[in-house]
């Protein structure tokens, strides 16, 4: 298997991008990436893996053709990869495999999502398409409701406090306040975070990520030739993935995302590393509880100690392992299909020393991207070469 | 005369919400009818969901194998559909055999006893068991007098061979008179109407009921006052007391009318369930009378063998009556979807 | 629209109305709904259909607040306010995800409370009423 590197990463501004369609959003991300490399022309790119839920359904079919056309790459192999919020993490997985196997030398993996142009009633339908329909959605469950069920149980089993959940939001908003691409650039206080209106008890609006328009794009290549295009390529040293039952009640545990546990173990084994080796991470905080679960599932702390970890400040910039320095899904935004590679964008910048919330001398980073309520997950470990 | 068929068991369902007459007085300045409070159907309920729960309770209280049921007969004037059987939905929900007789009775507010009377004749002929349910939640325009007392409940009875019965049905009569209804609900509308021609409707009420009761007492060769407990369907707890001058008022059972309200086609069967639960002792004689605009009335004579044993997990009528949450008039309108016109 | 069609709803009727599960005659596992391949031992066509009792305890819950309800439940939420959803652990050992009814979601619901199944209207679509089971606190 060949070694795979990332030579560039780009991302559009996240938020309510009125008037910007899939094409324009993706171009923004693509151009930023292309601007980071020398000697690379578009025609050198051999394949495109585009992650998207195609939220709203306006281009449910053949989205990859639309996207590839927008960057003048029509003709190359391309497809839409879908695993709900875990789409571009999986797009990256296939991109890596296509290079590692020797099939391709240079490919792009990315994602795009347009969510803000859809009416409220239609949006609510689309939030229900990626989970268990028969029992979860048709009992009146919502997407936040699912994570809320996990939160209630976690609070009961491990004594996790509401404060811990809200602290995740405070931290991520603080990081986002220095990120010009973030959807929300305002800090929030713990009091604000704890007392906002309930969305699905115990989660309130500050525990939930927003709906976001955005795109991300990563250029990968065979590590052997990476230095031709950039002085500081980042190597992908481990990558894992997993799936789980759609419905929470079918799973072995609802205070653990097994797909993430599996994906992490796979990635660490491949990289020959352990959780304690990770110096900076981007995890899937679609809801604050999800970040707490991520700490435990990846192995940054013991099962049940996630709440303690955030309250002790271990994941702030000065902590043992800073998490979501770009603002996370909570404050930077969550354009569903684009999130996975948008997380890679943050770690890429961290490992090259180019981040607004720079972790001092970070050389090993990790991304954790979950689909739906945990029915799919990818974990990727990157290292500065 | 049906002396082979009796009541094997009974079950009830009453929704949890109640509204007091004081709420109406606050809103409308007065309250039409003599009741204290009434039951209100919940937003996620209808006559079918209530029928299912009452039916479930009756089947379990009867300790029969549900596969031995030969018919389901449901009486209601508030079916959510015109073209779709209530009985078939109930059969599906309860997991009953689908190839049995599934009968809906919807002709008037006496449809519960129509279902019972028809069911008795069929079971007498075919043998086996029958599930009879009166389930209703009549609706009228807020502000109309008849609406004040309208409530919701379901009452179910399993009938079968007298060998196993807790009470025997010793006789039944029906009477109808020529009548141009001043109380009706037109197809395609949700609201019941009553033109409130009081002397006219009282005439029909009094005379139809008198006829059916007299026919029954003649046949059974007993006097009216020889009944130990009497239930006469009415809109409130005053109406039933004015028909028979000679009847000892203490024998007339009024509690369910007084605190549950006017439950339409469920009324007579609910009264029967209440009497069997609260009042009746071995060998007591019960008279159950229904009335529906049309005009028609059924009278049934019942002799009690024994009280029904309680099954632990099946709530009794008393448990349902005591399970209550009071709501105010706004919430009442919201539940009944009377507050917006969409 | 991405809604659930009538035939799709009808297919699940035995589960939605009567909690019919498939008990594997090979390994004893309860499959809900019954499946062709047993989820535990993988044997084909070994399941006998049984109706679960509909009694259990609340394993975890949430309360859906204003504006968050899926479209099928938007009207109900507008009229009746927030409602609770729970994962209920049934007596038989299975867990299912259901809406709770006949209770105040903020005051009455807690982990461990005993609940039982009741037949209710779930929602309406294309003018057809969809019935199913909700759970409520047991009546004592």
Characterise the protein shown here:
The complex is a heterotrimer of chains A (385), B (342) and C (140). Chain A is of the alpha/beta class. Chain A has 2 domains: 4-119 and 212-234, Peroxisomal Thiolase, Chain A, domain 1; 141-207 and 237-384, Thiolase/Chalcone synthase (Peroxisomal Thiolase, Chain A, domain 1, 3-Layer(aba) Sandwich), CATH 3.40.47. Helix content of chain A is 34%, strand content 18%. Chain A is built from 13 helices and 11 strands. Chain A has helices spanning 22-34, 63-70, 87-100, 120-127, 143-158, 162-176, 190-194, 223-226, 258-271, 288-298, 306-311, 328-332, 339-351, and strands at residues 4-11, 47-51, 78-81, 106-113, 198-201, 203-204, 214-222, 234-243, 280-282, 364-371, 376-384. The longest helix of chain A is centred in the middle third of the chain and has 16 residues, at 143-158. The two termini of chain A are 18 Å apart. By secondary structure, chain B is an alpha/beta fold. Chain B has a single domain, classed as Thiolase/Chalcone synthase (Peroxisomal Thiolase, Chain A, domain 1, 3-Layer(aba) Sandwich). In chain B, a hairpin with a 6-residue loop joins strand 12 and strand 13. In chain B, helix 2 crosses helix 3 (86-94). The mean pLDDT of chain C is 91. The N and C termini of chain C lie far apart (43 Å). Chain C has a domain at 54-137: OB fold (Dihydrolipoamide Acetyltransferase, E2P) (Beta Barrel). In chain C, a hairpin with a 5-residue loop joins strand 1 and strand 2. In chain C, the strands form 2 sheets. Chain C has a 5-stranded antiparallel β-sheet with strand order 6-5-4-7-8. A 3-stranded antiparallel β-sheet of chain C has the order 2-1-3. Chain C has helices at 6-11, 13-18, 71-80, 105-108, and strands spanning 20-24, 30-31, 47-51, 55-64, 83-90, 95-99, 114-125, 128-137. Chain C is an alpha+beta fold and 140 residues long. Chain C is globular and about 45 Å long. Chain A binds chain C through residues 57, 121-122, 124-129, 132-142, 144-145, 148-153, 156, 197-204, 247-250, 254, and chain C through 1-4, 12, 15-16, 59-74, 76-77, 82-83, 85-87, 95-99, 105-106, 111, 122-123, 130, 132, 134. Strand 5 (198-201) of chain A pairs antiparallel with strand 4 (55-64) of chain C, so a sheet runs across the interface.
């Amino acid at each position: 298997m060949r070694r795979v590197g990332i030579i560039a990463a780009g991302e559009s501004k996240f938020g309510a991008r009125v008037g910007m369609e899939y094409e324009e959003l993706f171009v923004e991300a693509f151009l930023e990436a292309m601007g980071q490399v020398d000697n690379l022309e578009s025609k050198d790119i051999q394949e495109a893996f585009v992650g998207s839920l195609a939220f709203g359904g306006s281009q449910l079919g053949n989205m990859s053709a639309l996207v590839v056309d927008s960057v003048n790459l029509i003709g190359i192999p391309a497809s839409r990869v879908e695993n709900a919020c875990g789409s571009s993490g999986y797009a990256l997985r296939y991109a890596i495999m296509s290079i590692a196997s020797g099939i391709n030398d240079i490919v792009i993996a990315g994602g795009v999502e347009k969510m803000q142009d859809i009416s409220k009633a239609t949006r609510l339908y689309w939030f229900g398409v990626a989970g268990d329909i028969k029992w979860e959605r048709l009992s009146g469950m919502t997407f936040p409701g699912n994570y809320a069920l996990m939160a209630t149980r976690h609070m009961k089993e491990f004594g996790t406090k509401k404060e811990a959940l809200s602290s995740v939001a405070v931290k991520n908003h603080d990081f986002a306040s220095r990120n010009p691409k973030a959807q929300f650039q305002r800090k929030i206080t713990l009091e604000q975070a704890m007392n906002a209106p309930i969305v699905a008890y115990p989660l309130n609006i500050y525990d939930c990520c927003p709906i976001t328009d955005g795109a991300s794009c990563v250029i990968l290549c065979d590590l052997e030739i990476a230095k031709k295009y950039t002085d500081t390529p980042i190597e992908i040293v481990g990558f894992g993935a997993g799936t789980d039952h759609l419905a929470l009640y079918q799973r072995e545990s609802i205070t653990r995302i097994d797909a993430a546990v599996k994906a992490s173990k796979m990635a660490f084994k491949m990289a020959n590393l352990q959780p304690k080796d990770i110096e900076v991470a981007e995890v899937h905080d679609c809801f604050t509880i999800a970040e707490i679960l991520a700490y435990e599932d990846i192995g940054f702390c013991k099962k049940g100690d996630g709440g303690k970890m955030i309250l002790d400040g271990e994941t702030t910039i000065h902590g043992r392992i800073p998490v979501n320095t770009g603002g996370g899904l909570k404050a930077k935004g969550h354009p569903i299909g684009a999130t996975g590679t948008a997380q890679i964008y943050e770690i890429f910048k961290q490992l090259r020393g180019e981040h607004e919330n720079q972790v001092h001398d970070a050389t090993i980073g990790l991304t954790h991207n979950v689909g739906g309520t945990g029915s799919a997950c990818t974990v990727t470990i990157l290292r500065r070469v | 005369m049906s002396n082979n068929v009796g009541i094997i068991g009974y079950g009830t369902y009453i929704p949890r919400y109640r509204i007091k007459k004081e709420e109406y007085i606050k809103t409308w300045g007065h309250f039409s009818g003599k009741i204290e409070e009434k039951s209100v159907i919940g937003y996620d309920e209808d006559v079918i969901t209530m029928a299912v729960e009452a039916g479930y309770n009756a089947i379990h209280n009867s300790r029969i194998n549900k596969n031995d049921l030969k018919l389901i007969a449901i009486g209601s004037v508030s079916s959510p559909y015109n073209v779709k059987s209530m009985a078939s939905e109930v059969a599906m929900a309860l997991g009953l055999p689908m190839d049995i007789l599934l009968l809906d009775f919807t002709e008037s507010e006496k449809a519960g006893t129509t279902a019972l009377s028809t069911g008795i004749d069929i079971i007498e002929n075919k043998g086996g068991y029958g599930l009879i349910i009166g389930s209703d939640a009549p609706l009228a325009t807020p502000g109309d007098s008849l609406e004040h007392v309208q409530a919701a409940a379901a009452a179910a009875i399993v009938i079968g061979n007298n060998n196993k019965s807790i009470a025997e049905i010793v006789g039944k009569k029906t009477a109808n008179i020529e009548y141009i209804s001043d109380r009706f609900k037109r197809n395609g509308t949700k609201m019941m109407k009553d033109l409130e021609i009081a002397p006219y409707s009282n005439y029909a009420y009094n005379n139809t009921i008198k006829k059916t009761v007299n026919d029954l007492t003649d046949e059974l060769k007993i006097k009216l006052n020889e009944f130990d407990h009497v239930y006469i369907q009415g809109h409130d707890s005053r109406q039933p007391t004015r028909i028979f001058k000679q009847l000892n008022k203490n024998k007339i059972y009024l509690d369910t009318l007084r605190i549950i309200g006017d439950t339409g086609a469920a009324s007579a069967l609910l009264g029967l369930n209440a009497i069997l639960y609260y009042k009746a002792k071995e060998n007591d004689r019960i008279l159950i009378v229904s009335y529906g605009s049309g005009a028609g009335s059924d009278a049934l004579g019942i002799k009690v063998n024994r009280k029904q044993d309680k099954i632990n997990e099946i709530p009794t009528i008393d448990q349902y009556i005591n399970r209550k949450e009071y709501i105010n008039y706004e919430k009442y309108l919201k539940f009944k979807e009377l507050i917006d016109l969409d | 629209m991405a809604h659930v069609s009538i035939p799709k709803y009808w297919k699940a009727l035995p589960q939605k109305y009567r909690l019919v599960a498939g008990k594997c005659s090979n390994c004893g596992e309860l499959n809900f709904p019954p499946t062709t391949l047993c989820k535990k031992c993988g044997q084909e066509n070994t399941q006998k259909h049984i109706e679960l009792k509909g009694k259990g305890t609340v394993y975890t819950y949430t309360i859906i607040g204003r504006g968050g309800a899926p479209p099928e439940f938007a009207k109900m939420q507008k009229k009746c306010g927030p409602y609770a959803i729970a994962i209920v652990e049934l007596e038989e050992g299975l867990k299912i995800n259901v809406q709770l009814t006949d209770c105040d979601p903020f005051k009455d619901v807690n982990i461990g409370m005993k609940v039982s199944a009741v037949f209710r209207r779930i929602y309406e679509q294309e003018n057809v009423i969809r019935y199913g089971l909700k759970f409520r606190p047991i009546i004592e």
